[in-house]
Each structure stands twice: as structure tokens, then as C-alpha cells.
Design goal:
This protein is mostly helical and 292 residues long. Helix content is 72%, strand content 0%. The chain has one domain (60-289): MetI-like fold. The chain contains 13 helices and no strands. The longest helix has 42 residues, at 248-289. The two termini are 36 Å apart. The chain crosses the membrane at residues 12-35, 79-99, 111-130, 142-162, 183-205, 260-277. It is a multi-pass membrane protein.
Length: 292
């Protein structure tokens, strides 16, 4: 029977202490925002330092957030971009990964070289803007979807996962008369669900958090996604539309908790998705990172 030595016990204790501190540093900002969002606005305005419990209790900030029509429009636009964008992302990335994972594809290495090249070099923002404008996507939610249809890193990840599937499965399917579409959707993808879950998480979080391209390509405020609305509230202080009939002093006071409530409203939905994908995440990332 192996006994743990004192140096090993000290090392384990230090590891546990370090991880606990790391967890505290990671969790506390989220906890601070959550507690501040339900605190009394007047008390919160004069508070400085750590916050370990709510300063009073009030849901007025959340009420005012949801009274703002831009929040609901932002939610609708973001959900459209996430749902439609994920459909484009998964299908097109799967098509590209399947083609590049086939050993019969001619010039596969040069093609991969050109694809990997795009990870490190691009034309810049101005040519990108004119390209989007030239194809008629300016001031359209499609400008947030089509140019981001395939991410090079995700394509390589999925390609590597497809290569790990035995060739004998494809060969037996072709003997039975299956074409490439049948092989991809009925054999390859069902066997690659962990890496598909990773793609859903990567692409989904990217769409949900995206605001810069929306700021560049959208002029109509009714098309703003949630994160761009949040940016306006946090950085430009556009909170007056949330407090109809409030005095100037009350607006300044309520704006403190409104910002925290808006952060929670914009963050919670994507946090709720992660637990459902977590069990696939590590397995899918490993499958896609190591060629079997």
C-alpha cells in the first residue's frame, strides 16, 4: 500500500489552495455583478470596495431593463443570428471538413496550406468592409452570419475528428450504394457528436458575444444585437430611455444598478447552455486535437 509522503501532502495542499484562490478570483466578479443588480440603487451608488451581500433588495433595475424596447429587439436579433448562424456554421464547416479529410481529394495539402494561411493573414478591416458592402450585405443581419460562416480553427478541429473515424465505415457504406451526403449525415456526423457539440459552443459563444461587426456593418438601431445594446448602455450611458418620467438625479442613481442588471440579462442565457454541452466538450476537443 502506497502512503502519501509529507512533500506530496504539502504539494496537494498548495494545489488545492491555489485552485480555491483561482476559483474565487474567477467567480467573485460575477457574484459582484449579480449582487449589485439586486441592490438598492441609492445605497449602491455610495458603496465602495467589496460586495459580499446585496445592499438592500430591489428588482427595479430588472423591471427597467425589460421595459426598454431595445433590449427585447436586441434579444430577438441575437437569437436570429445565433440560430441561423449556427445552422450555416455547422453545415458548411462539416462540408469543408469532410472534403478535406478524404484521402482521395486532389491537392489536399496545398488547399489546406491556403486555408491555414487565412488564420495568420487577412486583408484588413477596410477591404473586408468594402467586400461586405459590395455583395449587398451592409445594414443587414446577414452581414453578421455569412462572412463568419466558417472559422479556420474550427474547420481544422472538425477535419481532424473526421479523420479519426475508420475508413472501413465509409468503404462499407459505398458498397451499399451510399453517396457522400449519406456518408456525412448518417455515418460521420452521428459518430462525431462530441466535436459537433464543441462546434456549437464555439460558434454559439462567438455569435452571442459579437458586437464589433454589428457596430461596423449596421446603421439601423432596430437591427442591433444584444451585445451592441449592452455596449451603448455601459460605455455611452444611454440609460435615460429606461426610466420614463424619472428625475435627473433618480436617473443617475438608477443607472448604477441598471448597468449590472443589463450585464446579467445579457450573460445568463449563454451560461445556461454550457452545462448541457460540458460533458461533450473535453471529449470533443481531445478528439479534434489528436489525430487517431
Amino acid at each position: 500500500m502506497n502512503r502519501t509522503t509529507w512533500p506530496e501532502k504539502i504539494f496537494d495542499a498548495c494545489n488545492v489552495l491555489f485552485l480555491v484562490l483561482l476559483m474565487a478570483v474567477t467567480v467573485y466578479p460575477v457574484l459582484y455583478v449579480a449582487l449589485a443588480s439586486i441592490s438598492d440603487a441609492g445605497r449602491m451608488m455610495g458603496h465602495h470596495g467589496l460586495l459580499l451581500k446585496p445592499l438592500g433588495f430591489s428588482l427595479d433595475a430588472y423591471k427597467n431593463v425589460f421595459d426598454n424596447p431595445m433590449i427585447l429587439k436586441g434579444y430577438g436579433n441575437t437569437f436570429f443570428v445565433v440560430i441561423v448562424g449556427l445552422a450555416f456554421n455547422i453545415v458548411l464547416t462539416a462540408f469543408g471538413a469532410y472534403a478535406l479529410s478524404r484521402k482521395s481529394l486532389g491537392y489536399r495539402k496545398p488547399i489546406m496550406l491556403f486555408i491555414v494561411f487565412t488564420m495568420f493573414f487577412n486583408g484588413g478591416l477596410i477591404p473586408f468592409y468594402f467586400a461586405v458592402k459590395g455583395v449587398g450585405l451592409l445594414n443587414s443581419l446577414w452581414a453578421l452570419i455569412i462572412p463568419q460562416a466558417i472559422n479556420t480553427f474550427n474547420l481544422i478541429l472538425m477535419k481532424t475528428a473526421f479523420e479519426a473515424i475508420p475508413d472501413s465505415l465509409e468503404e462499407s457504406a459505398k458498397i451499399d450504394g451510399a453517396n457522400d451526403f449519406v456518408i456525412l449525415f448518417r455515418i460521420i456526423l452521428p459518430l462525431s457528436m462530441p466535436v459537433v457539440a464543441v462546434m456549437l459552443l464555439y460558434y454559439g459563444v462567438s455569435h452571442w458575444n459579437s458586437w464589433f461587426q454589428a457596430m461596423i456593418f449596421l446603421q439601423d438601431r432596430s437591427m442591433y444585437p444584444l451585445q451592441l445594446v449592452l455596449r451603448e448602455i455601459l460605455l455611452q450611458g444611454e440609460v435615460s430611455s429606461m426610466q420614463s418620467g424619472a428625475a435627473a438625479g433618480d436617473i443617475a442613481m438608477l443607472s448604477v444598478t441598471l448597468k449590472y442588471a443589463t450585464i446579467i440579462v445579457a450573460t445568463v442565457p449563454i451560461l445556461l447552455v454550457y452545462p448541457f454541452l460540458q460533458k461533450y466538450f473535453v471529449k470533443g476537443a481531445l478528439i479534434g486535437a489528436i489525430k487517431g
